[in-house]
Amino acid sequence: MAPLRFAANLDWLFTERPALPERLEAAARAGFRAAEVPGPYGWCPTLLRGAADRAGLDLVLINTPPGDEDKGEKGLGAVPGCQAAFREGLALAVKYAKTLGCPRIHLMAGRLPAGTEQAAMALEMEATFIENLRYAADILAQEDMTGLLEPMNSRITDPRYFLTTPHQAAAILEKVGRPNLRLQLDIFHCQIMDGNLTQNLEMYFPLIGHIQVGQVPGRHEPDSPGEVNFPYLFQLLESLGYEGYVGCEYTPQGEWGWSTGTPAHTGVEPGPQIGAFSPLRAPSNCLVCSCPAPAVPTKWGELRWRPQQLG
């Protein structure tokens, strides 16, 4: 059995470092060899790729842009009337993924429109999602990339998110019928919505393209007190032959999470010592967009470089 491979989610880990390139360095110092960068869009992708390469990190997952966060948007994939905006965001995500060398994109479903209810919108939102997923699958196939669907729990995290269970996601994947679309299973969300983790992992294993972890209910590191027996689940994943990454998406109680007493099979080892990164140490002319990269991260969508020039 191959040992599991873990990836640091840099929206959740090392957040005491405001600059995303600094978080990449911190992840490498902690022993990670891979990272999830859900929201890279405030940074020049060439700068991020260079920082990841210097740190020896593979970038394994990004999200599609969430839309207008000031309006409460959290993805547009299933939101009726937003097909054009979804396609625009997908194009930007693909351009980023190509530059970052990232093979997976989480296609965010989004929330129920304000003032609506799940029962009234379910069929229309599912139809919109299926339409957008088929379009996305065709685009991603051209780049040999995988699109991921992640159910998020509606009991603690987001009561208005459309995609909430692996059962719902699996049904949609079956209707879309594209082999390069897969299930992104977050153990935290799955435990809250359904539990029955052993059977769910075994049942949906053929569909799983990525896994994330966080203890329940506090969403802390896997060895913190909580409902989930992660040593058992990690052994189960290894026995099933899981070869993908396990994303560490949790709020750490320590500096970054697991203590030095973590079992060796987690795959996290002491990292290399890397020279300190200065956010201002960016190329004067970006190799991709011919712009100075931002020295500090910005909100998603407030891009300080010209995405239309991203090749």
UniProtKB/TrEMBL annotation:
Pfam families the UniProt entry points to:
AP_endonuc_2
Catalytic activity reported: 3-hydroxypyruvate = 2-hydroxy-3-oxopropanoate
Q: Does the keyword Protein transport apply?
A: no
Any one Gene Ontology MF annotation carried by this entry is: hydroxypyruvate isomerase activity
Location of the Xylose isomerase-like TIM barrel domain: 24-252
Q: Which UniProt keywords apply?
A: Isomerase
State the EC number(s): 5.3.1.22
Q: What class of enzyme is it?
A: isomerase
* Known function: Catalyzes the reversible isomerization between hydroxypyruvate and 2-hydroxy-3-oxopropanoate (also termed tartronate semialdehyde).
Please state which protein family the record places this protein in: Belongs to the hyi family.
Q: What is this protein called?
A: Putative hydroxypyruvate isomerase
